[in-house]
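R.M. (postdoc): so does anyone remember the format we settled on? I'll just put the structure tokens first.
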């Protein structure tokens, strides 16, 4: 499971589809609707949020908007009603780690996307508030 700190616009088709699928799994975990993946480290920052269920819906709404902009029909009804939520703090080190990880994936499976994004400075998903700091403690390098 990978819930990217990066904005979903950087993901290729495979990455965006995987993020939606894995995000829905994360949503099910946070809503207590599954027994698997309950202790997955990618969920720590959502669990630490004051409203984890609303935060994952806000996260996935941005993924769904990106998919719609590309012509994909991700089912918005799978999310609850959107409500304002506080940002989740993310570190610059985490963003850089994810950016390098994504670029390696894109280079291997989507060379055109790799060429489009390499050498760029990425922005984060709008749910996150970027601050200086190292790679997150929950990350598995």
């Amino acid at each position: 499971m990978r819930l990217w700190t990066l904005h979903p616009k950087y993901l290729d088709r495979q990455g965006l589809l995987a993020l939606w699928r894995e995000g829905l799994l994360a949503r099910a975990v946070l809503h207590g609707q599954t027994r698997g993946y309950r202790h997955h480290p990618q969920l720590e920052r959502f669990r630490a949020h004051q409203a984890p269920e609303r935060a994952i819906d806000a996260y996935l709404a941005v993924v769904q908007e990106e998919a719609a902009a590309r012509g994909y029909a991700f089912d918005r009804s799978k999310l609850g009603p959107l409500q304002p939520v506080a940002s989740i703090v993310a570190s610059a080190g985490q963003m850089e780690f994810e950016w390098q990880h994504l670029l390696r994936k894109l280079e291997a499976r989507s060379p055109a996307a790799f060429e489009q994004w390499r050498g760029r400075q990425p922005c984060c998903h709008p749910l996150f508030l970027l601050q200086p700091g190292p790679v997150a403690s929950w990350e598995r390098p």
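R.M.: ...and that's the designed sequence above, right after the tokens. Also worth knowing: The beta strands are 88-91, 128-131. The first strand starts at residue 88 and ends at 91.
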